[in-house]
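Postdoc handover notes: sequence design on the structure in folder B. Input tokens:
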């Protein structure tokens, strides 16, 4: 019988491995208390590492650090506890059995041998949009169950969340929020600012906490989060749909900024197990790129519309592969993905990687290579376009709830290939090519967001074998593990656009294409739509020690709601340049 009332947890988070071969991870537990049941002492985590089912050291224990307390309207306290786990890596793989005494069952996770490169899984978009009927897909669990089955066969060492681990869009539907977003936008545009009612923070916090408890506290996803250490990066839905890509008067409105700031605060709590006030990260002082015990953390410049700096991460995934997760949301604006200070800090950290690193995987929320939608972008931003006028009148769902712009426009503006971001995108690709050449590393981009699977590729315009080409970089897209894919008509158009040649990187001598990854459809029949697959999916990554290649396997749901998957594979070649 549990002595603790557990809201959420245990959740696992992997940080990195240090130069001494110490593996660093954290556990999060959220417990509920009344005034009469507040604990006098923190809970205790006990853990023991095992190899071949025999302990490799004595049992260890650590007390929980109180990160934050959420007080609800029923005068209950919900306490966030963080526990630190440190494991000495060995020449053999280990499993680690752990429990929070009197609160959680005994579960385990897997730590590879020190010389071994991680086997990992990656996914994105782990919630449903408001317009989707979950029952049509048998709910959120089918593809999570597929992931857990694969984990049982051959354990994953890390679970990479590529953004939209939760959908917080419904925060705008909470009492008084939506109508006051419009009012706050109008006041900002007119140069007026009425102080925010303190109750808005209470309403926003209540929704965010409740939504996280609902999504992270049960089901197959929660089981995965307790067994496979998470490595997460946010995207817009972790805050609210399209945050950072709306007009300046809306983004500067106090209420919308509050939504973004509280969303980011809860993202740090539930997904990174961090509280900047506790961990010593201050927006006013970001000169130290890693001021906390989170060794993978890279603090960048201040946020554009939120009271937080960017939180990017550079994580050890084995001696030959590292993972860079770039925070592309905290500084996002209509004409900016990240500011120069963030790029400088993450690239400097990458330049200091050990010489043993052969692969650098760069996680970006939104695909950096994707079929262009320029014609649609131009059409929908033209307020004189008669189609837009008619559609706004005839279909209320055609416009969003925030500023009356076309609903899909925030998604188009979000893309790296949009007219607002293309120059920044090209500069970033150029910087990563320089990094690849100087460090002799293979770069691979990893993204989600679009609710479809696919793979772009950058390469030299001259005919060079991929393994000898430092410009050769996959741009893998895995999305969504839960959410619905776009309509078939959209997938069809996107596949047609995928065949077009782009010359925006011609000045770098770089070719950009989409790979015909889906030669056969989900029923093993020849497929006309070879580039983009509209079905739920997630991805595995296996390092081939014999060839120094990374093998990516996209697992795509064969039939809607079935949870049965067909696998499509692509490899990132060894860097032989």
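Designed sequence:
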């Amino acid at each position: 019988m549990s002595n603790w009332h557990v809201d959420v947890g245990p959740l696992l988070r992997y940080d990195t491995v240090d130069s001494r071969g110490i593996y660093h991870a954290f556990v999060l537990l959220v417990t509920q208390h009344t005034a009469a049941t507040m604990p006098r002492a923190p809970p205790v985590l006990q853990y023991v590492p095992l190899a071949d089912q025999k302990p490799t050291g004595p049992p260890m224990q650590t007390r929980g650090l109180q990160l934050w307390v959420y007080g609800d309207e029923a005068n209950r306290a919900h306490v966030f506890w963080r526990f630190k786990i440190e494991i000495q890596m060995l020449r053999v793989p280990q499993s680690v059995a752990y429990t929070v005494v009197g609160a959680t069952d005994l579960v385990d996770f897997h730590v590879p041998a020190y010389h071994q490169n991680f086997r990992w899984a990656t996914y994105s978009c782990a919630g449903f949009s408001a317009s989707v009927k979950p029952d049509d897909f048998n709910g959120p669990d089918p593809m999570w169950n597929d992931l857990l089955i694969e984990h049982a066969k051959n354990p994953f060492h890390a679970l990479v969340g590529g953004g939209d681990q939760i959908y917080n869009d419904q925060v705008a539907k909470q009492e008084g929020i939506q109508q006051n977003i419009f009012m706050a936008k109008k006041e900002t545009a007119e140069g007026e600012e009425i102080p925010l009612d303190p109750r808005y923070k209470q309403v926003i916090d209540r929704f965010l906490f409740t939504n996280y408890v609902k999504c992270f506290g049960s089901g197959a996803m929660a089981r995965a989060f307790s067994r496979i250490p998470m490595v997460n990066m946010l995207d817009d839905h972790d805050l609210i749909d399209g945050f950072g890509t709306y007009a300046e008067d809306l983004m500067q409105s106090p209420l919308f900024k509050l939504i973004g700031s509280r969303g980011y605060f809860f993202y740090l709590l539930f997904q990174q197990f961090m509280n900047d006030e506790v961990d010593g990260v201050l927006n006013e002082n970001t000169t130290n790129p890693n001021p906390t015990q989170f060794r993978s953390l890279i603090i960048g410049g201040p946020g554009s519309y939120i009271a937080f700096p960017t939180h990017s991460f550079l994580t050890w995934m084995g001696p030959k592969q590292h993972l860079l997760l770039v925070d592309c949301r905290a500084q996002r604006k209509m004409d900016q993905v990240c500011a120069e200070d963030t790029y400088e800090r993450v690239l400097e950290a990458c330049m200091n990687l050990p010489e043993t690193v052969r692969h650098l995987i760069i996680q970006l929320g939104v695909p950096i290579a994707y079929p262009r939608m320029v014609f649609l972008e131009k059409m929908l931003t033209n307020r004189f376009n008669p189609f837009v006028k008619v559609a706004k009148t005839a279909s209320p769902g055609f416009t969003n709830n925030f500023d009356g712009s076309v609903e899909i426009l925030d998604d188009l503006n979000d893309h790296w290939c949009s007219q607002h971001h293309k120059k920044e995108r090209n500069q970033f690709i150029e910087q990563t090519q320089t990094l690849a050449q100087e460090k002799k590393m293979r770069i691979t981009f990893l993204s989600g967001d679009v609710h479809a699977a696919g793979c772009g590729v950058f390469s030299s315009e001259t005919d060079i074998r991929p393994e000898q080409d430092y410009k050769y970089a996959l741009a893998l897209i895995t999305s969504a593990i839960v959410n619905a894919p776009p309509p078939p008509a959209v997938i069809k158009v996107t596949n047609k656009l995928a065949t077009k040649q782009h010359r925006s990187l011609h000045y770098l001598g770089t070719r950009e294409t989409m790979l015909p990854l889906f030669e056969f459809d989900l029923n093993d029949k020849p497929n006309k739509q070879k580039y983009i697959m509209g079905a739920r999916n997630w991805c595995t990554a296996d390092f081939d020690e014999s060839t120094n290649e990374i093998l990516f396997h996209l697992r795509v749901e064969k039939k809607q709601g079935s949870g049965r998957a067909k696998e499509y594979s692509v490899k990132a070649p060894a860097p032989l340049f």
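Context for whoever picks this up: Residues 531 and 561 are 22 Å apart (CA to CA). Don't rerun without checking with the PI first.
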